[in-house]
């Protein structure tokens, strides 16, 4: 991956910082969209530059196609054309089907799905013209599985999943691979997906067969693989990274410590 240019969205988030750290280790050029303008990333940026990485940090509205195009043009003069797009947008807010309002719905769908469309369209044109590239969407298992916590989030993830498939079909003809990571529970998931109608995240860590929840570093390693030549025949794939969480069957069969009480019903 050395000398390639990697575009990471929402670089401020924990998932974004994990991606920055992983790709920096091989000296990739980094194009980072950061709401904080890089302040929240300073430690990551210092480490990246210690590995010899060049980094361009911006704070643009990814829902505006003109701003995305302008950023790519700026990056091309400083780093070169983007080789890898890591679309890492997983905005979420509590909202159900019955009480969610239009503004909340649109905010989440735009933050996650509209940005995916504009970034893929803009970067995809460059990659197609060059005949190579990789796009990786960092998404969620809730592209398929309702959480009962945020209908707009689940809807946006489903939209990104289908966008990934459509883009894989089109861009694949030009040597560009497009795949999606469906991330399962990580630390803090019970609070993030708190629900009055679903018990999916109750004692969630013990619903993973190993009893160990995933980390953002696990996700970053998978993204690194999908971005590299080793995954040349992986295109249009939805890879569920949840440790087997969605295969959980009965709570009383969970692998758990002795002091954890689980309702056997």
UniProtKB/TrEMBL annotation:
GO terms for molecular function: oxidoreductase activity. The keyword Oxidoreductase applies. SUPFAM superfamilies: NAD(P)-binding Rossmann-fold domains. InterPro entries: NAD(P)-bd_dom_sf (IPR036291), SDR_fam (IPR002347). Keywords: Oxidoreductase. Its EC number is 1.1.1.-. It holds the Pfam family adh_short_C2. This is SDR family NAD(P)-dependent oxidoreductase. It comes from Paenibacillus chartarius.
């Amino acid at each position: 991956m050395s000398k390639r240019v990697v575009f990471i969205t929402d670089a401020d988030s924990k998932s974004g910082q994990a991606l920055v750290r992983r790709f920096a280790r091989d000296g990739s050029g980094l194009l980072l969209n950061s709401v904080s303008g890089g302040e929240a990333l300073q430690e990551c940026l210092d480490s990246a530059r210690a590995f010899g990485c060049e980094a361009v940090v911006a704070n643009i509205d990814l829902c505006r196609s003109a701003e995305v195009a302008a950023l790519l043009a700026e990056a091309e003069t400083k780093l070169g054309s983007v080789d890898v797009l890591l679309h890492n947008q997983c905005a979420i807010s509590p909202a159900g089907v019955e009480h969610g309002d239009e503004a909340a719905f649109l905010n989440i769908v735009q933050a996650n799905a509209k940005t995916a469309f504009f970034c893929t369209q803009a970067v995809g044109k460059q990659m197609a013209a060059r005949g190579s590239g990789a796009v990786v969407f960092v998404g969620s298992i809730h592209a398929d599985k309702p959480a009962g916590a945020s209908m707009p989030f689940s809807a946006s993830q489903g939209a990104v999943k289908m966008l990934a498939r459509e883009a894989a079909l089109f861009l694949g003809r030009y040597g560009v691979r497009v795949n999606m990571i469906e991330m399962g529970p990580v630390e803090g998931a019970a609070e993030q997906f708190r629900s009055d109608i679903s018990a999916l995240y109750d004692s969630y860590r013990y619903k993973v067969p190993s009893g160990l929840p995933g980390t953002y570093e696990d996700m970053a390693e998978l993204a690194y693989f999908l971005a590299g030549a080793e995954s040349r025949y992986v295109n249009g794939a939805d890879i569920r990274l949840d440790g087997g969480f969605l295969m959980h069957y009965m709570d009383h069969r969970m692998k758990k410590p002795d002091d954890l009480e689980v309702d056997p019903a």
